[in-house]
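Lecture notes, structural biology module. Today: joint structure prediction for complexes of two components.
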Amino acid sequence: MSTEAVGDAGLYDYSDRPPRLPDPVDASNASLDIPLDQRMAMYEMQQVLRQFEKRAYDLFMQNLVKGTSHLSLGMEAVATGFASAMQPDDYTFATYRGHAHTLARGAPLGPVMAELLGRENGILKGKGGSMHLTSVEHNMMGSYAIIGAHLCIANGAAWSAQMRGTDQVAVAFFGDGTTNIGAFHEAINFAVVWNLPVIFVCENNLYMEYTPIDLVTAVPHPAADRAAAYGLESIIVDGNDPDAVFIEASRAFDKARSGNGPSLVEAVTYRHGGHSRADPGKYRPAGEVEAWLDRDPIPMYHSRLLELGVPEGDLATIQKDVATRVDEATDFAKAGAPPGGEHLFTDMWADGGSAWRN
Amino acid sequence: MAELSYRDAVAFGIAQEMRRDPTLVMLGEDIAGAGGVFKTTVGLVEEFGPDRIRDTPISEQAILGAAMGAAMTGTPVIAEIMFSDFLAVCFDILANEIAKSRYMTGGQMTMPLVVRTANGGGSRFGAQHSQSVENWCMMIPGLKVVAPSTPVDMIGLMAAAVRDPDPVVMFEHKSLMAGKAEIPDGEILDELGKAAVVREGTDCTIAALALMVPRALEAAERLAADGISAEVVDVRSLVPLDTQTLLSSTEKTGRFFTVEENPRLCGWGAELASIIADEAFWNLDGPVVRITTPHIPLPSAEALEDMAIPSVDRIHTTIRDAMG
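The predicted structure, tokenised, for the full assembly:
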């Protein structure tokens, strides 16, 4: 659901509204029971997501990425906290804002970057693009660009896990806007009735594309306030704190794996940029973006790790190593050829082809 | 040999496949305890249990979404959408997700699922429970589409659909449910993408589907009395489409007619007519003629519905007049 409408605020101007400011960092999260090596891994993952998205943005500006893209800049802690709590065989389902969720499952940077550039060495051979990133090998089961559908699809993966007798859990990530479409409500009711091992994660970044979510939603918390309707606990977590997300995610995974069914988690976060590449996000109230930039999850986590005694040099090394990996991914992507015409007619059917007649 | 109705053949075909593959599951509204609103799933929950034959809420998106998610993670599925009209409710999942995911992901996903649905008119249910919507599915790249007209075809095509690794939409015609036929012993397995010449003839070819097949056959009897030898082809599978059977029949007869229950515009016969015009033009002795439901919503009153859907009379007189 890409909106490539206007280049500046224009009709979509909500800048006179009072800004929605973030809650302050909960300093006590520093003492949550999370091993330091786990925290270091989460720092690195956030660095990967951040630096990759920044590079993707630069490549759009150079017109090397066509079409559209929806970046997760500012929202890295949600993907990081959840992916870090997953087992390797758990399933991820994401929306068109899916770069971070794909990388967080371990999909290789180069082929993902090449996909954004529409190259033959892309992870989808150039046939899906930014909005459909998938890596079945990493149990990242797709990025879905029609709002709501993948919550229903995640149910099926959870059902399949149940039928096969595994303890896999399916996780569907979606935006606040998704909570107002029918499929959201169908999916959650269905998951509860079938007691499925599935976790629904609302990344509430406060904007439904160009519109403040509170203007189009009957309740203040678009996901958490709906939970009671399905007999679920109302869960709100600081989506800009990977430690808080990790703990909440772990609780939801434990619930699902112990046969106690689905969870609905609302992670409150913020999109640093606009909805998609065409949107500079100028409609937002003065002071709001700045306040959320001050709550940027990555510098916050950097400070927390320093407080926990991690040497600054260790963090700098991680940053530098990630920068090298992103550079290498960029080189890999740029070196890819445009897909050849032979790819046009492959992969529709399981036999590899697309024949519809004899 | 046993005699089975088309209705019973549905459950028979599903049961054959569920015995063969213990991982196959089915979901839908009222399919378990109630045995389906058309009684096409009677006895299945008793044999296979409530874990494999599962009732759902009235949530068509949730139903097809669950089918897709299960299929792509290694659990083959049959999903029932009670009336084909309701495909409109979950068309996103069918047309945008199920149909496209394999291609969009560069072949990463496999989708072994069957969507079964009751299609077609004749039940006086009105415009939202009577449509023939096989053309909705035919036009979506990535879906296979079958519509059996006999109990034996139902079983064989059900087996072929379940064993196919790609998504297949199976249209079960509401007005064919009571029809009976002898069923051969042993496993019945057919093939997708094969039309059947169900009556041989030399003067014209009539391509028909589902309920229109018995009507075309009866019209062919009347045409014979008029001295016109009509060949009737049961198209059976819209995707893949058996164009070779249609082309070779037309090359023999020199005339081509379609009998379609879907409304006129972009009905499945339009594609067939186009193929015949492109590839059998020099064999044609006269225009290609499509006999369809008019381009209107289906009315409910018996008298009006019967006027709308191609009848034996209309098929007979249209072809007789066209053949001069």
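Point to remember: Residues 1-7 of chain A have pLDDT under 50 and may be disordered.
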